[in-house]
Amino acid sequence: MKLTRKSKAKGSILIFGAHPDDIEFGCGGIAASESLAGRTLHYVICSQGESGSFTDSKTRQKEAAAAAKINHAHLHFLELDGDAKLQIQTRHCLTLAKVIRSLSPEIVLCPTTVKNQHPDHYKLGEMVRDAARLARYAGLEELKGFKAHKIKHLFFYALSPSAEPTHKQPLHYDISSSGVLTRWKKMMLAHKSQVKSKKYVELQLSRARVAGLSSGLEYAQTLFCEDNLVISTLDTFTSSARSF
After folding, report:
1. Selection from 12, 5, 30, 77 nearest residue 219 by Cα
2. Are strands 153-157 and 220-224 parallel, antiparallel or unpaired?
3. CA–CA separation, 43 vs 9, rounded Å?
4. CA dihedral sign of residues 222, 33, 35, 10
């Protein structure tokens, strides 16, 4: 990934994934909804999926590119330690902070930090969380040349039920629109090597259905936040999940 001081995208969303299909399966419905609403999206994938069981890294990169194209997202690959080898290191946090500064997003999404999941997922989540702080520290010598940037929100997405935090209040994002669902399905199906091997699409749609029904919606995806959310009016909330 080539970093530049000038590649700013005001009001954009930056989504980090450890592997080429993480974004589509973990928060693809939300990404589709935001893209259809006119948001600029940047995807940063931190491995090429080379340790996977079903195909090679070149195929996975092509599939990720196809999925990103469907959602009109800007795709970037960032090599850290490699698939299934990611380690939490300060130098990686600084690299991720450079990415945040370079793209200047308003909102950042990344995997949850729950440990009962693929180790690359929670390790990346922890480092993105730290990088979001480092990105705003203007005095860091290692980040000179990239203007300090403070994001508005950091949200975490869960790739599986076991990755959902039990101690944080979930935020349910309504993805019931037929246009959103249609695009999300296409995005997931773009990962042909993965969906033909396991029922990933059915799993994620089922999770979204349960989250939606529990909130009085048709479909919803869940985000988690580690910080207090601040509002200026109670009209900020669309509804509350009081259906059952």
Report:
1. 30
2. antiparallel
3. 13
4. negative
Fold adopted by 13-236: Rossmann fold (3.40.50)
Q: Which residues pair with 14 in a beta bridge?
A: 42, 108
Q: What tokens does 166 get? A: 């039990």
* Confidence category of residue 197, pLDDT binned at 50, 70, 90: confident
Rounded CA gap, 14 and 198, in Å?
A: 28
Mean pLDDT of 174-194: 97
Q: Where are the domains of the chain?
A: 13-236
Q: What is the rounded CA–CA span in Å between residue 58 and residue 49?
A: 9
Residue 19's identity, in one-letter code, is: H
Determine the Cα–Cα distance for residues 38 and 231; give it in Å rounded to an integer: 23
What is the tens place of the pLDDT at every residue in 137-162?
999 999 999 999 999 999 999 999 99
- Distance, CA of 207 to CA of 222 (rounded, Å): 9
CB 219 within 8 A of CB 175: yes
What's the pTM value of the predicted model, to 2 decimals? 0.94
If you ran DSSP here, which 8-state letter would residue 27 be given?
Answer: H
**pLDDT for position 51:** 86
For all residues of the chain together, what is the average pLDDT? Answer: 93
Does residue 224 contact residue 164 with C-beta atoms inside 8 Å?
Answer: yes
Strand-pairing partners, residue 68, are none
